[in-house]
Amino acid sequence: MTLFAVFLCFVILQRLIELFIARRNEQRMKAEGAIEFGQEHYPWMVSMHVGFFLCLIGEVAFWQKSLSPFWLILLPVFLLAQAGRIWALTSLGKYWNTKIIVLPGANVVRKGPYRLVRHPNYVIVTLEMFVIPLLFNAYMTAAVFALLNAIMLSIRIPAEEAALKKLTEYEHTFGKSGKLSPKMLKKFDN
């Protein structure tokens, strides 16, 4: 098995475990009265992520790409992103999901990376969709999915924030600002 195959198996296994956690959290949250939002764009988001892996595999296999000469820089960035992913997931606990599922009246999580950035998981996913292809010189995959991810997040983040504003104290906590960083709110919203 090649290094690329081992790496890819690790990432895909990680995603499958996250889907299991998300499903479990979804069932628990809905049993508590949570409401799902963003159902119209969710299949497109899933398709984009599946497409990312298929294009990555296709580009690396078809053009016989190998490990980047910059792997000593890119691999630590990837590993740092994985630590951030785990930090974001554990900080949200039962509220973490791949879907937009909001429990009415719940307190907005403001611990872990959420003290610093409103949507740390999206920052991490964006970083991964760039770094993973670059690790294996898959420049077309990096470019195409950087663009597709930006388009998806331009839909996803407003939908998530609207759901949180509707059912939680989100707007009271963060104000009406669209800033990404809660820490900056006090500094700039005065």
From TrEMBL:
An example Gene Ontology molecular-function term: protein C-terminal S-isoprenylcysteine carboxyl O-methyltransferase activity
Keyword Cell membrane set for record: no
Assigned keywords, A-Z: Membrane, Transmembrane, Transmembrane helix
Sections of the chain in a coiled coil: none
InterPro entries associated with the record: ICMT_MeTrfase, Metal_cation-efflux_comp
Transmembrane segments: 43-63, 70-88, 122-148
Subcellular location: Membrane
Protein name as annotated: Isoprenylcysteine carboxyl methyltransferase
